[in-house]
Amino acid sequence: MNKFVALLILIGSLCLPAHAALDVGDTAPDFTVPAALGGKVFQYTLSAALAKGPVVLYFFPAAFSEGCSREAHLFAESIDKFEALGASVIGVSGDDLELVSRFSVQVCQGKFPVAADEKKAVIKAYDTAMQTRPEYANRVSFVIAPNGKVIYTYLSLNPDKHVERTLGAVAQWAKDNPKR
């Protein structure tokens, strides 16, 4: 019974509205964090990724949860479209490195890196912690231009639109910046 009540509280907290502090035009905080790509661990640095093109930075609550697995799968299915526009994708959660490493293989299919923000430093820098459950990141996506400026943000606990919306923002950026 206690597990059921805890589950109801968690689900209820996931449904509360929240906000992301960064807005379009803001400078995205740089960060370096342990990440995994196809199960291989490395240090991911945002500024290094931005030197190659725009970055889709998406935060998610918990690896292997239903919504987060769905969202990661959708990003994996669309990674070729992002790459064709010169963009890269990284997912960030507060999960530990071992868990995100398995998630990067099993759900992300080795298509893009997933970062383990165990200390919640990146989650705090981007103000993406859930208000009622700060140990979890909210489902927020950012598109960051190579100059480090946020060009798009999307906040929704529904995982189904994040890929579509961020891909649209990257496509618009590519159209507006043909001499990348």
Could you explain the architecture of this structure?
With 180 residues, the protein is of the alpha/beta class. It has one domain: Glutaredoxin (3-Layer(aba) Sandwich). The protein is built from six helices and seven strands. It has helices at 2-14, 46-50, 66-84, 97-106, 121-125, 162-176; strands at residues 32-37, 40-45, 55-59, 88-93, 114-116, 140-144, 150-155. A seven-stranded mixed β-sheet has the order 2-1-5-4-3-6-7. Helix 3 (66-84) links the parallel strand 3 and strand 4 (88-93). The longest helix has 19 residues, at 66-84. The termini are far apart. Residues 1-19 have low confidence and may be disordered.
CATH topology: Glutaredoxin
Shape: globular
CATH class (first level) name: Alpha Beta
Residues in β-strands, percent: 15-25%
The helix/strand series, from N terminus to C terminus, equals HEEHEHEHEHEEH
* pLDDT < 50 runs, ≥5 residues: 1-19
The helix fraction, in percent, is: 25-40%
Strand order of the largest sheet: 2-1-5-4-3-6-7
On the 0 to 100 scale, the average pLDDT is 90
Report the biggest beta sheet as strand number plus sense, adding barrel if it closes.
7 strands, mixed
CATH architecture: 3-Layer(aba) Sandwich
Q: Brief description of this entry?
A:
The protein has helices at 2-14, 46-50, 66-84, 97-106, 121-125, 162-176, and strands at residues 32-37, 40-45, 55-59, 88-93, 114-116, 140-144, 150-155.
Record the SSE blueprint:
Blueprint: H1 2-14, E1 32-37, E2 40-45, H2 46-50, E3 55-59, H3 66-84, E4 88-93, H4 97-106, E5 114-116, H5 121-125, E6 140-144, E7 150-155, H6 162-176
Helix pairs in contact: 3-6
